[in-house]
Amino acid sequence: MGANESHLVKEIGSDQFPPNEHFFGLINFGNTCYCNSVLQALFFCRPFREKILQYKQQQKNQKKETLLTCLADLFHNIANQKKKVGTIAPKKFVQRLRRENDLFDNYLQQDAHEFLNYLLNTIADLLQEKSLTSKSAKGNNLSNHSSAANGSTAMANGPLLNKNEIVPPTWVHELFQGTLTNETKCMNCETVSSKDEDFLDLSVDVEQNTSISHCLRGFSSTETLCAEYKYYCEVCCSKQEAQKRMRIKNLPQVLALHLKRFKYVEQVNRYTKLSYRVVFPLELRLYNTSDDAVNKDRLYDLVSVVVHCGTGPNRGHYISIVKSHGLWLLFDDDMIDKIEPSTFEDFYGLAQDFQKGQSESGYILFYQSREI
Amino acid sequence: MASSDGGKEVKTAFVTREGKYKLLPLSEYSKPTRNQINPPQYSPVRLSFIETNVDKSSELIFAFNSGRELFVYPYRGVRKAADLSKPIDKRSYQGTMPTSHDFNKGLASADSLPLLIGFSGGQIQLIDPLRKEVFNCKLFNKERQVDKSRVTCVRWLPGVQNQFVVSHSSGQLYVYNTDLQTTCTQPPHYQSFKHTDSVSVFTCKTKSTRNPLYRWVVGAGAITHLSFSPDGEHLAITSADGYLRIVHWLRQELTTSFRSYFGAFLHCAWSPDGYYVAAGGEDDLVTVFSMQQRRIVCRGRGHKSWINCVAFDSSLCKPLEYRLASVGDDTQLCLWDINEDVLRQPPPASRPTSLPTPNSGVQSTVSLAPPSSAKTSKSPLTNKFVNLTLGGDKKDEKKEHKRNISFTSKSGSTNHVKPLDDKVLGTPVCPRLEEVPLLEPLICKKISNERLTSVHFLEECFVTACYEGNCYTWSRPTSPSSVKDVT
Ligand SMILES: [Zn+2]
């Protein structure tokens, strides 16, 4: 490890090393790279890190251990290291995670996106619970969120919150939550009905040799509901053919995009990986916004990427690339390297379907709005 | 394994209003060893064409890079099949690979064909494929003291036969004189020469004139492409910082600039009359900018991924009517008709902007001749032998794409893209999406299984190149009287 530390400091240049910044690799506790990669991606998502550290400050006397207190301890621990570079064991956090959710209570490789979803929802729940109890409000009526079913067609991975107005939005929602508007147009009476739906991250289908912008546009493409999928129109009081499209109405501060690279193939009865080459720019605006979106031309900067390496969801490896003070770093469990954006080419995926070999491909992209 | 790409067929012909374009399978040029997949780090395949006059007939010659190799072939057009067994030149490099090339139009003749080649390791080589025996190659920035970063574009200066400009991914460009000493064992010292907005010009701080003559620092990201205006007066520079900057070359000043909707601009081209500049990049859009009005006049949406090359088809361009082509990572070719309806649209009623004032239009009479270039017009030609394997720092090269890179100190500024503020959105420099016409392509066809890197128009055909190093010829619609299909 020692060699690694000095190596990285030398690479960055001690005079160039960002002040008050810490680059700490996370030790792997047996297939916990899905967890490590997401934690690093979130740590370098500055607004998220700041909120977690603030929570730590406010919760000094908290006795009860939760996933959130474990995460706050871990981030606090990293942020207060004397050394600039090193490794740390997220032991307490992983233990807590395994205790709280059966899904993660094993030594198998897990889906990093499922973990992200579980983590954000759990933090949101804990914060809401706290704000409710502190207001001595009524008992905990929060729904117990199951993590988004993998491979399901659900595209908006929303907090399945009961739209109970008493429940105040937490900072998790302030950072990650956006709103989709689901517009359905009855082909018979042409009435358009729209329904809003909140999300914490978006899962998009991937296509070969496309950009993330294109995948997002595909996400919002118009779908015709016909035959057995006809839509019940309230105006016509009958089932009718309809056109449906889903566009983004409220753009989140931090846009988390999950590329649906794991596809269930019935013939082989398992998930296979779509290693398609999907390029993602350092800067992004969205094309799939609704007409009434208020912040539709928000400019985003890429801040971190969780990369999946290998062939399937339950095998392979996760790493993350993160941006810190204009530097790009690659975190591979306890290993850290400085990388150049010109090498991102390696993380877009494979341009040809028959191409074999190591597929390192972007799996979760975190874009942060430039305004914050 | 069957293609899972939605069963999208690769088109070998397509029809537009002017007629049918057809792929000519026999006029395909490629590197002789096929079917090997280039690693992703390979550079885009670029095409350079040159016309040489032999007796009274003219001959087309073209160069393309593929992986570590560079090929020069006679281009036999649509009537004769390609003959891959007889390249004019074929070079293979180790430790570095060609990224860009340009023939010297002023010096090209039946027996001389100076060709510049830029490399991923930062070096620039000058060769003459027609005089291999007698011409001694020159290698600039061999020691990588000037710039260690990848060469992204090389271009001869218009109207000057012994000078060229080279851009690097470090965000800098340099001007070299081919008659001056190529070696540079010490990093050059620069002094500030001229500074305007996001463009700074430096000269070498030495008693005698040396290479590089000038260093330009442009914008806040890697320079991705260079293109001189048809009159040679302006240079368009695309950058990873999302800007296309147009500089007045002799005055060494920024004339104007415009911004992508988001992300890097990767390529640009001038309309044949020099009135418009088209650009493409990471926003999947083509963007067309008017030099006269100093504003973006339209955008085009049709690509599914980044656009690697844009080109005007000069044979289908006339005043207020332009034909543009674009190719990209989505393996598609798009053709765009930009006509009067679009170009005559009034600019959006937008708020006043801080556009750079248009230049007066008065031709600068001050000739900023590079210091004492005249004195050295005849080079000493001590001609050190330059090895074909550009050996400079092989170790660095090999490591370039691995993760455990030990970066030696870089020359000049780094290539980190500094976030620019978003204040230009909604101005003529970067209108909102709904503020300018958003064109649909005339046609949008998947013409390859591989990502496309180049498109180039010739009199009777156009040529596309893809990442794997294959160059395809597409015949233009033929009038009934002219030659039928080539067999
Ligand atoms: Zn109806």
Question: Secondary-structure blueprint of this entry?
Answer:
The complex is a heterodimer of chains A (372) and B (487).
Chain A: H1 2-12, E1 23-26, H2 33-43, H3 46-58, H4 67-79, E2 85-88, H5 91-100, H6 112-134, E3 156-157, H7 171-176, E4 178-186, E5 192-199, E6 201-205, E7 210-211, H8 212-219, E8 223-225, E9 231-233, E10 238-240, E11 242-250, E12 254-260, E13 262-265, E14 270-273, E15 278-279, E16 283-284, E17 300-309, E18 317-324, E19 327-332, E20 335-339, E21 360-369
Parallel strand pairs in A: 1-2, 6-12, 7-15
Antiparallel strand pairs in A: 3-6, 4-5, 4-11, 8-11, 9-10, 12-21, 13-14, 16-17, 17-18, 17-21, 18-19, 19-20
Helix pairs in contact in A: 2-6, 3-4, 4-5
Chain B: E1 13-16, E2 19-30, E3 47-54, E4 57-66, E5 69-75, E6 89-92, E7 98-103, E8 115-119, E9 124-127, E10 138-140, E11 151-156, E12 163-168, E13 172-177, E14 190-196, E15 199-204, E16 214-218, E17 223-228, E18 234-239, E19 243-248, E20 253-259, E21 265-270, E22 276-281, E23 285-290, E24 295-301, E25 307-312, E26 321-328, E27 332-339, H1 340-343, H2 394-399, E28 438-439, E29 443-446, E30 452-457, E31 461-466, E32 470-475
Parallel strand pairs in B: 24-28
Antiparallel strand pairs in B: 1-2, 2-32, 3-4, 4-5, 5-6, 7-8, 8-9, 9-10, 11-12, 12-13, 13-16, 14-15, 15-16, 17-18, 18-19, 19-20, 21-22, 22-23, 23-24, 25-26, 26-27, 27-29, 30-31, 31-32
The structure holds zinc ion (ZN).
